[in-house]
């Protein structure tokens, strides 16, 4: 499938929106919201290709779900030993739950929380089961974005083999510099270096760092970059108290683009 970075970011935004709605859904609405979540993944080629590329679930889904549901909280689903197994198994279960109109909260979700409240059951099911698939898809889309670089005008052919994305540039030429005179390849490398050091951050700081990097990427490739927004993003990155390696990566990025903002 052909895709540029701008289109990829829209897909990431839509996937995050669908995921957040599912994670925050009331237990009474959960089945309907889950159906929309599964439908979105099925109808979005880059996500559907990734899931299919992880193989087919070899479980007897009807028996597995009956076993977990009939245990009244004593059993939960296994996930698998590899990332690919986790992706295909979690997806297959969610799809089967949708196809069979399973209410989830008073069935398979019971074992995911010791609380007697239905909402807590759904929360536990989301955190311990559904989030496994969400995180794998998020990581997959993020890696594609890193491989694409920061130029939103380039178009790429994205194919999936064994759960791995293979990306080929569909253009004959590649823009080497941004509109504020920054070498695009070096900027891409420095931003990727910051991202690789974000694992040790808190969830809040990760979100802040990710949003700041996205602002920097978006503004620098813009025809009329807003230097004030880039400076604000830099300030947000500097305020994050991460490990030394994260701080060093941020400093290297700031040193590189700082002179162009004066």
Compact summary:
With 262 residues, the chain is mainly α. Helices cover 60% and strands 6% of the residues. It has helices at 5-23, 30-43, 45-53, 61-70, 83-99, 118-148, 184-196, 203-221, 227-238, 244-257; strands at 2-4, 155-161, 164-169.
Summarize the structure in words:
- The protein has helices spanning 5-23, 30-43, 45-53, 61-70, 83-99, 118-148, 184-196, 203-221, 227-238, 244-257; strands spanning 2-4, 155-161, 164-169.
- It is mainly alpha-helical.
- Strands 1-2-3 form a three-stranded antiparallel beta sheet.
- β2 (155-161) and β3 form a beta hairpin.
- Mean pLDDT is 84; it is low at 171-179.
Descriptive key words:
mainly alpha, 262 residues, 3 strands, three-stranded antiparallel beta sheet, 10 helices
What structural class do the secondary elements suggest?
mainly alpha
Biggest β-sheet strands, sense, barrel: 3 strands, antiparallel
How are the strands of the largest sheet arranged?
Answer: 1-2-3
Number of strands: 3
Overall pLDDT score: 84
Tell me the layout of helices and strands.
Blueprint: E1 2-4, H1 5-23, H2 30-43, H3 45-53, H4 61-70, H5 83-99, H6 118-148, E2 155-161, E3 164-169, H7 184-196, H8 203-221, H9 227-238, H10 244-257
Antiparallel strand pairs: 1-2, 2-3
Helix pairs in contact: 1-2, 1-6, 2-5, 5-6, 7-10, 8-9
């Amino acid at each position: 499938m052909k895709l540029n970075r701008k289109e990829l970011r829209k897909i990431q935004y839509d996937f995050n929106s669908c995921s957040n709605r599912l994670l925050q859904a009331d237990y009474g609405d959960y089945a309907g919201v889950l159906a929309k979540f599964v439908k979105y993944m099925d109808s979005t080629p880059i996500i559907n290709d990734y899931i299919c590329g992880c193989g087919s679930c070899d479980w007897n889904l009807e028996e597995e779900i009956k076993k977990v549901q009939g245990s009244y909280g004593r059993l939960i689903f296994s996930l698998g030993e590899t990332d690919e197994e986790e992706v295909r198994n979690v997806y297959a279960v969610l799809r089967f739950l949708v196809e069979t109109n399973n209410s989830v909260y008073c069935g398979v979700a019971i074992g995911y929380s010791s609380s007697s409240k239905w909402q807590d059951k759904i929360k536990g099911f989301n955190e311990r089961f559904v989030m496994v698939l969400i995180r794998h898809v998020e990581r997959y889309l993020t890696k594609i974005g890193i491989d694409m670089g920061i130029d939103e005008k380039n178009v790429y052919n994205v194919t999936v083999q064994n759960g791995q994305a293979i990306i080929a540039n569909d253009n004959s030429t590649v823009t080497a510099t941004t509109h504020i005179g920054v070498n695009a390849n070096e900027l891409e490398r420095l931003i990727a270096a910051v991202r690789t050091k974000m694992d040790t951050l808190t969830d809040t700081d990760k979100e802040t760092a990710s949003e700041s990097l996205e602002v920097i990427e978006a503004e620098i490739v813009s025809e009329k970059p807003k230097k004030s927004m880039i400076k604000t993003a830099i300030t947000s990155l500097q305020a994050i108290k991460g490990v030394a390696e994260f701080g060093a990566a941020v400093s290297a990025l700031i040193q590189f683009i700082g002179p162009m903002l004066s």
